[in-house]
Write the structure tokens for this entry.
Amino acid sequence: MGVMTLGGLAGGALGPLIGLRSALWACAFMAVLSIVLVLSIVLVWSSPLDQAARTATAHRLRNPV
């Protein structure tokens, strides 16, 4: 919820500086960018390579050489 306050402040500052239409486009771009970032993190966490790395790490922790 604290990020919403920062977003409101940033939007209020951008409006007079770059114009209302440009500020709205900047906000839309940041919203799409955040969605892409969240989806990429979910894809990395669910990838078979990440699961294999976690399995190997768990195996090494249980059976030290």
